[in-house]
Design a protein that fits this description.
alpha/beta; Rossmann fold; seven-stranded parallel β-sheet; about 40% helix
Amino acid sequence: MSSLVCFGLGYTAQVFAGRMAARGWRVHGTARSAEQVGVLRAQGFEMSVFTGETPSSEAREALRQATHVLVSAAPGKTGDPVLACHAGDLDGAQNLQWIGYLSTVGVYGDHGGARVDEGTPLNPKSERSVLRVAAEEAWAEFGANTGKTVQIFRLAGIYGPGRGPLEKVRRGKARRIVKPGQVFNRVHVEDIAGVLEASLLRPNAGAIYNVTDNEPAPPQDVMAYAAQALGVEAPPEVAFEDAGLSPMGRSFYGENKQVSNARIRDELGVKLAYPTYREGIAAEAAALAKRSTSS
């Protein structure tokens, strides 16, 4: 029986774990608090608390039977928490066939709007991206030293039900911030799950994959489309200089690149369900409309 352990059963990992559970896999997930564990157990997941500071005895037990492991827990200043607490358990997991590490396209830094792929030198700017690079390197080293099949997935901006442009418009929190030439890369959460599932069928030790849709796009265009999909007026445009963004918000706009997804299509045979933001937002809007008419 295939068995998946997910360190950090958050928004993205839940979608992937749900897919695999529907296929009859055993799934064990972790969350940082007992409250989160309780919520996810109520949704049918086998869960344990993992704070990243000490090992989880329940996760350790699950790893003994694990065939696949997904790591979405964020790194800290002291390194990757899963490696710090469970490297020995992972090394000793006799049935383990695949380890997927979820990283971010932020590791590339700023490229002035140029196209980047998995071979582009990394140039992280923010502290969070610097930590991700260190975690990627640690996982790659672990795979090389142990012979375990470790693959790294660099995710673009994640959106999907309850999260992203459509939700911001619905809640009245959307802004159309304009910075000439700026584009962002995005990916629907279901397409992330699809890429991970495709990778399970073609394990490739040491492989790195960009997980993004086909069309990096200006953020103001995406917000305008989300408003149109909901049948409401788009929020007014605001110049980047006048937006009053937080330091973190400004750091996002300080990185401009077009991330290639050719490898997931060529190597994994992935056909995206939502190749651009238009298909993803339109599908979400249709689902919202259906729920509102049936309620």
